[in-house]
Automatic annotation (TrEMBL):
Residues that bind Ca(2+): R197, D202
GO annotation, cellular component aspect: catalytic complex; chylomicron; plasma membrane; very-low-density lipoprotein particle
Cited function: Key enzyme in triglyceride metabolism. Catalyzes the hydrolysis of triglycerides from circulating chylomicrons and very low density lipoproteins (VLDL), and thereby plays an important role in lipid clearance from the blood stream, lipid utilization and storage. Mediates margination of triglyceride-rich lipoprotein particles in capillaries. Recruited to its site of action on the luminal surface of vascular endothelium by binding to GPIHBP1 and cell surface heparan sulfate proteoglycans.
One BP annotation, GO: positive regulation of cholesterol storage
Alphabetical UniProt keywords: Calcium, Cell membrane, Chylomicron, Disulfide bond, Extracellular matrix, Glycoprotein, Heparin-binding, Hydrolase, Lipid degradation, Lipid metabolism, Membrane, Metal-binding, Nitration, Secreted, Signal, VLDL
Leader peptide range in chain numbering: 1-20
Reported modifications of this chain: Tyrosine nitration after lipopolysaccharide (LPS) challenge down-regulates the lipase activity.
Full protein name: Lipoprotein lipase
Gene Ontology MF, one: lipoprotein particle binding
Domain of life: Eukaryota
Membrane topology: Peripheral membrane protein
Enzyme Commission (EC) number: 3.1.1.34
Entry annotation: catalytic residues: S159, D183, H268
Amino acid sequence: MKLKWCDEIFFSLWFLQSLCLQEKVILFKLILDFEGIKSKFSLRTADEPDDDICYLVPGQEDTVARCNFNHTSKTFVVIHGWTVTGMYESWVPKLVDALYKREPDSNVVVVDWLSRAQQHYPVSAAYTKLVGKDVAIFIDWMEEQFNYPLDNLHLLGYSLGAHAAGIAGSLTKKKINRITGLDPAGPNFEYAEATTRLSPDDADFVDVLHTYTRGSPDRSIGIQKPVGHIDIYPNGGGFQPGCNLGEALRLIAEKGLADVDQLVKCSHERSIHLFIDSLLYEDKPSLAYRCNTKETFEKGLCLSCRKNRCNNLGYTVNKVRAKRNSKMYLKTRSQMPYKVFHYQVKVHFFGKVNVTKTNQPFLVSLYGTADESKNIALILPEISTNKTYSSLVYTEINIGDLLMVTLQWEKESIFSWSDWWTSYAFDIQRVRVKAGETQKKMVFCSRDGISHLTKGKEAVVFVKCAAKPNNTDTGQDLKERSAHEFSEE
């Protein structure tokens, strides 16, 4: 009996020793998993959005409690891009502050990979793989150790940081809820495989803002091709209003050099400020419209909201996952709030003499129940007799319901000698307008039955048409109505 008792004690001791050995192996493995992480994870606060005062350290559970991480709220993970100075850019605390203003109980984590981001660009671009891996390990640890739901996780990556976010999403064991790409970097990524850059497969929903896609694809600062479920190209994506040299000098004169980094990369960083705008101006969401090309959008042919053809830009985007990438366009102002109001204007030009003119300047004025927007400049690439033309007109002013439209044909310049000897004119019966934001379609008639639009002369006026029975339409009315039907891409 004593021998059996001793055997039991010996077995128990052996079992406990084995358990301890297993715990040591697991702990050693965790140390190996986390020791390669170079990125830092700063949980910033609403009171100090510009300071890194508390870090979440993967593998160290006490840091999560010490930083007061909220396990029941949303978490935003902000990933910066390439930096010349090796320091955070001025947009980082602005985005952190805006996120907390919109979601006060959330966690805003800023990923610090500055030491890798300040290298020669191709080197920093290659480091996005390691940064993405670091972020993925951090996310998996939070999910496994604290059972944090990834449905509450939203990654926001700017420039190179957008691709790091994409790689992180491709490596996590469970799917991330959302990734927002803020003008993802173009060089080294335009022709890269989907696994090495941001792609729609990296999260349940991926939305992307493209704000600086100028030049050839391999030289464009921002990636040109669509890389998300929804890809939005504000102002065509090539160049943003207010980012010219004159505007930069004016802002420096007003605000000093505090935001000079933003001015240098104005169009590239506009993606961030558009997203900030969507957080701060909840009552003024900017609406983007699906369109195959920016040229078609400029004609006003894509202002439809049928079948998810329009969507909010930024934080309140509707998470629509189409079978193919959805390219969307919109116009914006040069400063916050960026929202504008889009209109499609269609005009049929009549005349007894065939005339064709190119690149003609017009002024359109819109008068509504709430306000008016006068002398909106418009260039029509071509106008010809007995043809219908559609164009996009937009205004920063909310004019309410549209009541009246005026149209003026400007002289090109005082040096256009042909205008002195020839008086060009067209006849117009109606102007058709579609409001993008309200989806209202309206028809405006000449007060004189037919208006004579003469180049260089006063504007012609169109008011809402009076209701008229169909059986009184003339053949010309029917012809014009057919020509003016609103087109949708």
